[in-house]
């Protein structure tokens, strides 16, 4: 079935999402009751690019990430992933979309506390049908690549904050995602550890051929991405190269 060109309910802009972009959104609107968190946002994410989304607290950064990643359905607007319309999927299909095509790194809490690092990393691969043996082998490879050899059996509580975020990066990349979404991935870390995690996140994401969408309020963290957009009151107020 060929994808629809236009959104069923167009947002404030009339342009359809760019077909050439890996991920493209047009006219995204998201309301929570009387609060308009996104007021008609257009975003393109190119193949393999790293894009920072900056802005003050409450500006709509996380809401934008959640809508782009299919965690939340937008109220209006259209989103295409590799040219395919993913705007109007139901929760079950959005869940499958996230599992198959996206990886996630959050500030903290995405690792399951009761599972050792290698099982945390292996889990997304198993959810996509890999056998336990295959998923565990791949998880160990990823943990080795991220400098965590010897720590495969440790639970998240037995890892430092920076080590736990490396596990989260491995977990995000094990399924070979198209796009990695990171929301304040260094928010719980000191500056030096945050720097280390950003280096690993940007390098491994690029090497894996995934695009990266990074939400942060921190200018130094945003600077790891070549391009950035700034959100204020649910609008994009600037677009350009990071410093
Ligand atoms: N689930 C929700 N229910 C009600 N209002 C919400 C919800 N999520 C976000 N909002 C509101 O939407 C607006 C944008 O919130 P959002 O979390 O996207 O901002 P943010 O830029 O990521 O902020 P921060 O940097 O503090 O995390 C805010 O006014 C917020 O209060």
From TrEMBL:
Pfam families: ABC_tran (PF00005). Residues 23-243 form the ABC transporter domain. The keyword Transport applies. Keywords: ATP-binding, Nucleotide-binding, Transport. SMART domains: AAA (SM00382). This is ABC transporter ATP-binding protein. One of its GO terms (molecular function) is ATP binding. Signal peptide: none annotated. SUPFAM superfamilies: P-loop containing nucleoside triphosphate hydrolases (SSF52540).
């Amino acid at each position: 079935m060929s994808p629809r060109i236009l959104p069923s309910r167009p947002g404030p802009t009339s342009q359809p999402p760019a077909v050439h972009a890996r991920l493209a959104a047009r006219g995204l609107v998201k309301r929570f009751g009387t609060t308009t968190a996104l007021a008609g946002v257009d975003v393109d994410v190119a193949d393999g690019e790293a894009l920072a989304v900056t802005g003050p607290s409450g500006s709509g950064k996380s809401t934008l990430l959640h809508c782009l990643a299919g965690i939340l359905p937008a109220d209006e607007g259209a989103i295409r992933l590799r040219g395919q319309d993913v705007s109007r999927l139901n929760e079950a299909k959005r869940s499958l979309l996230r599992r198959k095509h996206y990886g996630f790194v959050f500030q903290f809490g995405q690792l399951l506390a009761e599972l050792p690092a290698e099982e945390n990393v292996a889990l997304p691969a198993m959810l996509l049908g890999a056998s336990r043996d295959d998923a565990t082998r791949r998880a160990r490879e990823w943990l080795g690549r991220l400098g965590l050899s010897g720590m495969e059996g440790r639970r998240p509580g037995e890892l430092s904050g920076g080590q736990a975020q490396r596990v989260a990066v491995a977990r995000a990349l094990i399924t070979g995602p198209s796009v990695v979404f990171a929301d304040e991935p260094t928010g719980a870390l000191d500056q030096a550890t945050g720097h280390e995690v950003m280096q690993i996140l940007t390098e491994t994401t690029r090497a894996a051929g995934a695009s990266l969408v990074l939400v942060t309020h921190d200018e130094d963290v945003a600077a790891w991405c070549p391009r950035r957009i700034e959100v204020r009151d649910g609008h994009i107020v600037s677009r350009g190269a990071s410093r």
